[in-house]
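Memo to structure team: turn this sequence into structure tokens by end of day. - J.P.
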Amino acid sequence: MENILVVGATGTTGRKVVSILKSSPYFEPIAMVRKESQIREFSDQGIQTVIGDLEKDITHIMDAIDVDKVVFAAGSGGKKVVEVDQEGAKKMIDASKNHNIKKFVMLSSMGAEHPEEATELKDYLKAKHNADEYLKTSNIRYTIVRPGSLTNDKGIGKIRVGQPLNERGSISREDVAHVLTKTLHEDAASHDCFEIVSGNELIENALADLANS
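Reply from structure team:
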């Protein structure tokens, strides 16, 4: 059983990641929250928590808990893209590197590869791009997942994946959460970056095909 620190555990996608990990026979989630008032939501479910604010010093977090891998699903909602989406991610990458984390799974965004080409959300995509590039050069095993537009629809368990896809599309947060958790496995995509949208191929098969390509 591996301990997975979920950064952004109180976000819509982060909550789904925590829920999936809680029912997994392989992983145990640790929810990172910003406030003490957010602890009970997880402690009532028997889920360990740790307090950390990505806008502040977080070097203490890895000292306080036993973490094997990290899922970074945090986001500022477009309000503080540099402080949270970029610099906050870098802080967590540094902390992970200093504690020899086995793998870092980053929730990014389609369009982050070439943010200069974006017609909207350019600052957000630039911040995500910078964080992704920082992770790539960190010497940590990583997977960067770049979904299309996120929806709150029920997941269908099927995706289309590419490096890149060269097409736009949407995907449910539930399906994104399942992709993030599946990439935590040792035989899943490593030192890899890919885009996903809803599709016709089962998530497991799509990721297996990607690993074998």
